[in-house]
């Protein structure tokens, strides 16, 4: 999660919402990193999780990320939760809960829907306060400025 927090800080430095993600392979090696990049790239899919999973898939040479863990500082939205299911990640670890858009247990629970063919394990609220603090600080500065 500390590596994901570093990625989140990079997003904030470039003016994007501070969310960061990393993908670990089964051995625990980092095979993909990413942070929110929507503002710079003008890409609505430029969420940290998508960026990190794309990098991991490229490193692997396959869209299948079975055996991998997606670690992200904020609970994934429906798009990112769905992408994690489609990529067949084994596990999603996230920090701060997102009561407004979270799709891994808060507002929705996409990843545990029994109708889907793949359901990753979920580990929630890892370093949640630290992850949430980045977001609170970011938005506090935006409201003032």
TrEMBL record:
EC number of the protein: 3.5.4.33
CDD domains assigned: nucleoside_deaminase
Class in the EC hierarchy, top level: hydrolase
Keywords: Hydrolase, Metal-binding, tRNA processing, Zinc
One matching Pfam family: dCMP_cyt_deam_1
Catalytic residues (UniProt): 49 (proton donor)
Residues that bind Zn(2+): 47, 77, 80
Lineage top rank: taxon: Bacteria
Cofactor stoichiometry and binding remark: Binds 1 zinc ion per subunit.
Residues in the signal sequence: none
Gene Ontology molecular-function annotations: tRNA-specific adenosine-34 deaminase activity
Domain CMP/dCMP-type deaminase: 1-107
Necessary cofactors: Zn(2+)
Known role: Catalyzes the deamination of adenosine to inosine at the wobble position 34 of tRNA(Arg2).
PANTHER family per record: CYTOSINE DEAMINASE FAMILY MEMBER, TRNA-SPECIFIC ADENOSINE DEAMINASE
SUBUNIT field: Homodimer.
Family to which the UniProt record says this protein belongs: Belongs to the cytidine and deoxycytidylate deaminase family.
HAMAP family: tRNA_aden_deaminase
Protein name, as recorded: tRNA-specific adenosine deaminase
